[in-house]
């Protein structure tokens, strides 16, 4: 037994080292990666249930690393948050998404609603509202076209300050959506206090929903609550036709998921938009 335990701990140590090495590599090459243009945004269509039309996209960051290949944001966003690099990176994301909206407009696409994920660190910045206002002006898009996705984590640090910022953003005309609703400690109390436009139901809401009556009732009830509060409801992570049918039966407003499309590069998104919205 002793030998076995010894081996296990050895394996554990070795894999920890690999993880640490990878993290160190990511951390040390991040700044340069931004300068070298290794980050890019992919866009996942947001589809309106009532019409079946694409009305916008969520921007999701990707890092094409020369040695590691495509790195997931789940791997590098936490590092960027820890080092503070998320501030310039977050600004890059906002600016790139806004520029892209303008580019699609130039191509003749209608004005789209693009969502950008925000880190709690970005809200600790006093000038965040000013930064966003400047980016909107520079890109030349209407504030209503930009939707900021936030999670409850932004309230962990100085909730009062955060709430003030959110109200200023609303004043500016930017839309706010609460992301990952239904995970972690998300509670209905957030719905009372934040000036929200959209509630995004996490994929865990619909995982297994097809065979689970209780899950369907929870899903249905949350949508009723959200609608009574005048919120738009988006269901995330819809993958199958069966899931889609249940979701459509409960008056959810919009859907994102592999059933329509995974996140794709901007050029591909424009093609999808044109093909999908043809009739
Ligand atoms: P999220 O904001 O909840 O984004 C949804 C994630 O679900 C995306 O993963 C998306 O590719 C994936 N997804 C979409 N449809 C489906 C589906 O039908 N099935 C499954 N299994 N997955 C689906 P992704 O792109 O890897 O992003 C992961 C997370 O990284 C995001 O979760 C978000 O929290 C964070 N993130 C991504 N881009 C940014 C960014 O620009 N800034 C910040 N701060 N965070 C970002
Ligand atoms: Ca999101
Ligand atoms: Ca989400
Ligand atoms: Ca998330």
TrEMBL record:
Domain EAL stretches: 23-277
Organism domain of life: Bacteria
Subcellular location(s) per record: Cell membrane
Protein name: Diguanylate cyclase (GGDEF)-like protein
Source organism per UniProt: Paenibacillus endophyticus
Organismal lineage: Bacteria, Bacillati, Bacillota, Bacilli, Bacillales
Shown part of the complete sequence: 550 to 828 of 829
């Amino acid at each position: 037994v002793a030998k076995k335990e010894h081996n296990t701990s050895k394996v554990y140590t070795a894999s920890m080292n690999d993880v640490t090495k990878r993290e160190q590599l990511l951390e040390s090459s991040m700044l340069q990666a931004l300068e070298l243009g290794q980050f890019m945004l992919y866009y996942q269509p947001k589809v309106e249930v009532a019409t079946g039309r694409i009305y916008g996209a969520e921007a999701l960051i990707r890092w094409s690393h020369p040695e590691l290949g495509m790195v997931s944001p789940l791997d590098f966003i936490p590092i960027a948050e820890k080092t503070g690099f998320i501030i310039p990176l977050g600004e890059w994301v906002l600016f790139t998404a806004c520029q892209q909206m303008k580019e699609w407009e130039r191509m003749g696409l209608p004005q789209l609603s693009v969502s950008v994920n925000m880190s709690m660190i970005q809200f600790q910045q006093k000038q965040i509202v000013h930064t966003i206002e400047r980016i909107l002006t520079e890109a030349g898009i209407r504030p209503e076209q930009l939707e900021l996705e936030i999670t409850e984590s932004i309230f962990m640090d100085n909730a009062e300050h955060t709430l003030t910022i959110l109200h200023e953003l609303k004043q500016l005309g930017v839309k706010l959506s609460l992301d990952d609703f239904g995970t972690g400690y998300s509670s209905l109390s957030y719905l009372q206090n934040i000036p929200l436009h959209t509630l995004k139901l996490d994929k865990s809401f619909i995982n297994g929903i097809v065979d689970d009556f209780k899950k369907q009732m929870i899903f249905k009830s949350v949508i009723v609550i959200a609608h009574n509060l005048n919120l738009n409801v988006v269901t995330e992570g819809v993958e199958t036709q069966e899931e889609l049918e249940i979701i459509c039966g409960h008056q959810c407003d919009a859907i994102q998921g592999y059933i329509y499309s995974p996140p794709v590069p901007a050029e591909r998104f424009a093609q999808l938009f044109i093909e999908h919205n043809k009739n």
